[in-house]
Design goal:
This protein is mostly beta strands and 315 residues long. Helix content is 3%, strand content 43%. It has 1 helix and 21 strands.
Length: 315
């Protein structure tokens, strides 16, 4: 004969929706408020907001950016900077940031930071010159510091935009010539360029590119990325040269990626000695841009790390 459930069992079943009997309780601990919030006017109609990573007893899953108490952006935990666009010129704005965890708990707002957008300059038809002599240093496994020489503009540079593989990831004031980029991955090669921007939203050409490889995580070996990738564009062709990674065995295959997609696999009968070279044809109209990067097939059969990215323009 089946016995009816006891009162303790019924109580456990009812409580299961809130907590598991004798198990983990509902997460009610809020994350810490983001610190180090900064706001920089990138132009007459945009502001770049950046902050330091918040902490939580379990994990931070995202951030919310508020402008005078109104949420204007929602971001994943990996993002700690954002551009706020479509603003008004010559206007003061106040921003705060809150962290969110998996249970939906929101942190207290960060201290408010105020920034004023500059006046527009619609008569400005001349873009700034590119920043010169971009260089950088690695700050451990998750950050780098970049520095460059000032750009020139007929009216004035309002901001410098930092790009990583053609994507803008950070901005600083037009009076700054350094920037610290955080949130990177250990043991990864990154390619950075910088552009100057004026209040009329005109951007300069790219600065020179700089490749930086973050420090490897503890227990992980050296990078397996091809190095010293160089490109030469000729009419109808692009010539590549690079140094394959140093491994315990021969490297006979590389994958070539164009604009982030696999284009072809390059196979040699014997491992190249010293520099490797490859030429691919292009039939696109002049001015077409390609991003180019490579990775090698390692002796254990796995694909290694990606090389630094290069941008080529069809002649």
């Amino acid at each position: 004969m089946q016995r009816p459930p006891t009162l303790p069992a019924l109580a456990c079943a009812v409580a299961l929706l809130l907590t598991s009997c004798g198990g983990e309780e509902k997460d009610t601990t809020i994350p810490s408020a983001p610190s180090g919030v900064t706001a920089q006017a990138g132009s007459a109609t945009s502001v770049h907001v950046m902050w330091e990573q918040a902490t939580d007893d379990k994990a931070v899953t995202g951030y919310e950016v508020f402008q005078k108490g109104i949420r204007v952006k929602t971001l994943p935990a990996a993002k700690q900077m954002v551009d706020i666009d479509r603003l008004s010129p010559r206007t003061a704005y106040s921003f705060t940031v809150r962290a969110r965890d998996a249970a939906g708990n929101l942190s207290k707002p960060s201290p408010a930071i105020t920034v004023t957008t500059p006046a527009p300059t619609p008569e400005d038809r001349k873009a700034p010159t590119p920043p010169a002599k971009l260089r950088g240093k690695v700050d451990g496994g998750r950050a780098v510091t970049l520095s460059w020489e000032k750009a020139a503009d007929n009216i004035g540079v309002t901001s410098y935009d930092i790009y990583q593989e053609d994507s803008r990831i950070h901005s600083v004031s037009g009076t700054e010539t350094t920037a610290r980029v955080t949130g990177l991955r250990p043991g990864t090669v990154y390619t950075f360029t910088v552009r100057a921007r004026d209040a009329a939203e005109k951007s300069s050409p790219d600065s020179n590119a700089v490749d930086l490889t973050t420090a490897s995580a503890p227990g992980k070996g050296p990078s397996t990325a091809p190095t010293d990738l160089k490109t030469t564009t000729r009419k109808g062709n692009v010539d590549l040269s690079w140094t394959p990674p140093q491994t315990d065995g021969p490297v006979k295959e590389h994958q070539l990626f164009l604009n982030g997609k696999l284009a072809t696999t390059i196979v040699w009968g014997a491992a190249p000695t010293g520099k490797a070279t490859y030429t691919f044809m292009v039939t696109d109209r002049p001015g077409t841009r390609y991003s180019v990067k490579l990775r090698a097939k390692l002796p254990d059969g796995k694909w290694g790390d990606f090389s630094a990215q290069r941008t080529v323009v069809v002649l």
